[in-house]
Design goal:
Elements: H1 3-28, E1 35-39, E2 45-50, E3 56-62, E4 68-76, E5 82-89, E6 94-102, E7 109-116, E8 133-136, E9 149-152, H2 159-163
Antiparallel strand pairs: 1-2, 2-3, 3-4, 4-5, 5-6, 6-7, 7-8, 8-9
Length: 191
Amino acid sequence: MNFLATWKIVVATLAMLAGSCWAVNEFDQVDGPNVRVMRHEDGSRTIFLRSPDNRTMTKKTFNANGALSLLTIYRMDSNGNPLGCKIMDGTKTELFKVSYGYRKSDGLLVEERMFDSRVRRLNPENGSEMPVQRVIYLYDAQGKRSAPIALNLLPGRTFEEVYGSAGSAYERNPFDDEAKPANPNARPLKR
């Protein structure tokens, strides 16, 4: 066989092996305080990447075969609460944009509004953009959040069928390692 042809085959093989090793290492590599990896029971994995200034968080969901299936990019405020996010499919086509609303008195998340990025839907009454889904959160006296109330404003498939959960807000920040008390005004029990 020709030396030049053999050399090309060897280089191409090494390049393919290096590329597959990089994809595997993306799951196994935890880069300090700015990366979290979650492994799910069905074999899929989720990687959370946080910017050093805590202003953006990227959530990449990979299926069991290792292919990117969902990409969500959150914009955060100075306290680490999401202000908005963009949800994209595995080919990085933007599907939805989401805005989050907080109660002024205590800063708790009360509503998220999801807008379709591909088709702009206008309210016929006032011409403003209409969300395709609203998710409302209620809280009890202790500040514990109830199950979300999802209002789907379009006929057809539900957001849960498309996205896999009732809302895009995460239950617990994957980068928040500190345990918080249930009630910040609670006093320890006397013995």
